[in-house]
Amino acid sequence: MESASYRDQITPENIRNVCILAHVDHGKTSVADSLLSLNGLVSKRNVGSTRFLDDRQDEQLRGITMKSSAVFLTDVLTKQEGVEDTTPVILNLVDTPGHIDFSTEVTAAVRICDGAIIVVDVVEGVCSQTKEAIKQAYDEKLRMILLVNKIDRLVVDLRQEPKDMFNSILLVIEDCNAYLASLYHLDLSTQESSNEIFNEKPDLFFAPETGNVIFASAIDGWGFTLRHIAQMYLKVINGEDEDSLTKKLWDFDCFVSFKDKQIKRGAILMNKANLFVQLVTSTLHHVYTNIVINRDVSNIEMIIKKLDLKTIPSYGLHNDFRMKARTILEAWKPLCKVLLLQCYLSLPSPLHISNERIDYLINSEHYSSSIELNKHIENNKLALKKCSPDGPVIAYMSKTFAVNKNLSCKNNNRTVYPKPRSEINLNKDKQNFLKTENIGADEKAEESDGSKTEQVLTELSLIEKDDVEIIALSRIFSGQIRPGQELYLLNSTFDLIEYSLSENKEDYLKKCDSVKKITVTSLYLLLGREYRLVNCISAGYVCGIAGLKDVICRTATLCSALYTTPIIEQSAMEPIVCNVISPVHAKHLSQLREGLFLLQQSDSCVKVILNEAGEFLLLTAGDVHLEKCLEDLRRKFALVEFTISPPIYSLRETVSQENENETVFSSSSINLSETCILGIKITALPLPQQIIEVIKAHYALLKMIQEHQMPSVVDIWARCESNDLHSSTDKIFKDELIRTSITRLKLRFNDAFSNCNNLWNNLRSENIWRIGNIKNNINLLINCVSDYTCNIFNTPNECDKRIFLDNFIVNAFNMCCNAGPVCEEPLMNCAFIINTLHLSGDLDSSTSRRPEQANHLIQSLYACFREAFLKQNPSLMEPILATNIQTDAQGLGKIYSEVHKRYGKVVEALNLNEERKVFTVKAQIPAVESKEFANDIRKISSGGANPSLQFSHYELVGADPPKPGAAEDSDEEVDNFVRARKLKNLVRRRKGLAIEDDQVVVHAEKQRTLKK
Ligand SMILES: Nc1nc2c(ncn2[C@@H]2O[C@H](COP(=O)(O)OP(=O)(O)OP(=O)(O)O)[C@@H](O)[C@H]2O)c(=O)[nH]1
Ligand SMILES: [Mg+2]
């Protein structure tokens, strides 16, 4: 077990927690390889080809990363490398996958880091997942470095001239900045986040002259910032210092006059190559053209001299010209060193967490109205800010994963620490430590690339179920954790307000399933493929925590005291692909169940559901993710044979209005007691898009208002305040910011209502009773009862006898939204309007408390909601997947026909290159029809196109039953109807519900003719 002595000597000031984000295949893992070479985990020769962190067999086979992996690296930066003093640095690096199926893994990575390296392939440019990566880092308030990768390809593959190389690079930087600007403006327009980030605006964008842009080729191991180039040319250019030359390198009007070696202006007007082209792209162009393309040995010595390389690198040892170029360029500006330096200089240490990030992490707005809790919240914020080992424990578990216990290195022989570097003046203790910890680092570097890789992979694949240990990838924000320590595990639903207001805390904890007590069994430093057992980890580190036996949670906060604000959960992608999984032999059922449990524990994007029919439903994020899960089940968790059904997709139910001027409603008379009858009328309507947009944009605020309007909480709040039970939301929220937001929200609703037609433009924000409880399925309950003022902005009038119905109506509404009457799938974009709510007779005050009466009431209301829905032309919505496919002109037609065959549509076909006729086809296809789509497209394009499908939205399938006269309508409409009926019956059959006749005979005559 490791003593913490080395880590003890490094303060959090010198720690950097950094993730690498990018679109698929842009080179993240290759960049990580380069950094790993610092510690000898990968030999320099094999950077880019080892892909050390892709340690799964399927990752190596497919060539894509499927999970986030963290690795703990240490190195020392010296004065020569650009820091003021010799500085030991710890880098916790997290490589992430780029494939859309694994975006939950990216979400997990960004939370535990303070900075992100955004990698962009300069040839492909900014792609959909690049934007997603930037957005995630921006939302999490991480500082970013842009790494423009694969610059070698501009010369070697595209044969671009230096000027075009510059344009390609510029385009990437501008695209990233344009996207950042759009995020920034969106933030400004909602104004819901604090102003701090806007004050720091200059740091938000990528500006090469500030050092947050690295130009690189990960595969060739080189990289630099403008400052590095400035340092190099300072000796030969007159009249400039390092700062001024760095700035001028990114001033496109500057150029160097080689005659007098001075920098001049006017490059744009004179149409001259600018300084960047002259000093940067021309140099790279020269090296690659001479060595790799022309294979010209005669120039190499000259190149080495020009690059100011004092020692001649061992380029001569390589016969391969690519390797020669690589050796020279790597010796010139090694990417690993440049990247480490820039992480140290441009990204914050855990001590420099911004107030804005702290407020975001604990959602401090949520607590801003609580005077009682203020002291605790402030203490929490202070603990996060101080990042001290002496503070209370606050850690965030961002994902769980399974490891082979045998692979954790319990003795030091299996660990790799940085090579001691003779020139560094470390203190004696550190030197000794490095020596003892560095056993076999060199041999390991060699081993880890070839035979060793094989060995590790085999080890993984032979894992025994008992050897599986579930580890939580965690970040310690405050305090210190040791094995054996007892901690509270709070999941994101833990409500500190409710806890603090509960009268009997013990009772509350017993009832509340959002808090658990766990004992930390072991702690690990994560070393990529291995896990190093340690006896203590302090604030500021990324680590692995074990001790989660029987706990399934996606994310959680670990803390030593219960008055801790849980760190908010990031919204992650919901799994959309669903398959039934069953054992081949019935006797293996329990093993499969255990395996599925472990799978769910180890992968936060997997859900396993046992349905009413007793089948296990396995929900995953996409085809590739499903295959990874099946591989894990087969080899690690279940070790039994199983079968898997074709995918089942989750549908949505909605309504469409036939005749806008006519309202249909369901009415019901419900006996509340022998003497009292409730009369209720409900209308279901499609929710207009404008209103959906307002709800989506303010979902968090609306949810908070709703939570505070729950009678029990309101009650308690009111007692805390001034016995005023008729408080409006404005009174409940003391915080000025929230109150202003609520006022603005009401205005937005009023605007949206008045922009709609007919019935809608008579409504006001005061008519909104409830928002449906599923975030992505927006549904609305509207109160149009003239004499009953109940809405989400005001607590109801206590004197009105109907107030007790509020909970029942809201519950029945939510029940109906969770499972609609067509095929028990969730509703989407529906509004239910309560037109009448009328009590006749005397209401006995105990009525609603009798369980059978309460049950009768809620079931009757639920039935009434369902009837209203069925009366308004119910329809189904299906998930639509979006894809981008690159193709040449010949493939274009085939792709169109493949998309149409699957009931999809081509949204856009962009001509990327006029000369070569390269197109990007943006298409959408129903998820239900997406089976084997990627494979079919790959075949069509002879392997050239490799589309990845991404969930886009839900879309109406078609009305079911058909509109009157549908039989005479277009073929397309009939197709829609037939598909809708087929989908509906498929779902109903799966759920064991009654099915209408499958045989749909529309256009009966046509069918007869066809038969002939
Ligand atoms: N020419 C060239 N190829 C590169 C460079 N960097 C990476 N590659 C290649 O690009 C491919 C993808 O690299 P990876 O490092 O696996 O990319 P990734 O971003 O980790 O991919 P995912 O994790 O699957 O999203 C590999 O074949 C690399 O060898 C580079 O600088 N130049
Ligand atoms: Mg990768």
Automatic annotation (TrEMBL):
Keywords, in A-Z order: GTP-binding, Nucleotide-binding
NCBIfam families: small_GTP (TIGR00231)
Chain ranges of the Tr-type G domain: 13-246
Organism per entry: Ignelater luminosus
A Pfam family of this chain: EFL1
GO cellular component entries: cytosol; ribonucleoprotein complex
Protein name: Tr-type G domain-containing protein
Superkingdom: Eukaryota
GO MF entries: GTP binding; GTPase activity; ribosome binding
GO biological processes: cytosolic ribosome assembly
